[in-house]
Predict the 3D structure of the following.
Amino acid sequence: MTSHRAPLLIGLLSAGLLVAGCGGGAAPSGAPAALSGAPTAPTSAPQQPTGESSASGEVARCTGATVSASVGTTLGDTQRDTTIVWRNTSDAPCRMTGFGGVDLRGPDDPQWGPSYSLPRAGEQPTPVVVKPGGTAHTVITWLPGDSWTPTDIVVTAPDETTSTTLKWDQGPVLRQDGATHPGTYIHPVAPGSV
């Protein structure tokens, strides 16, 4: 066994010295050739800016200045889905990720007050790139009621603080402000409009 290892060991050492000899620089006196250069940091891929996803690349986030909001279609009977449409009004694509905010506002309810902030669904949001003139949408799932009718819906794009107030003409809504599993909630932003 030992006789087979010796030629292999000699070959590996010779190859190592040959490679070290091609390094292009002389080693300081007294230092082995393999330790003559400073270690080099491994090269890595460029880092994405914070908040960017590989799906959306370098596309800027949609803001209140680049998107407009409007109330779209409503479908369903027992539980309804109303669409909020986000339209990119800028000359460049923009990115939306998340849920945004939705508040229904109306008369002062004796128990809950005049504003109903809708909770989020349990879905995982994904980035949506909205082309210039294109749309994305948020679906609001809600339960019709008989005692509280909102007059306005206040919507805020994801990661924004500027809100838009729109008219609510969809009828009365069942308030479930303190419910553990409410039948009224918002979905994450999705591409296109419904």
Observations:
- The radius of gyration is 31 Å.
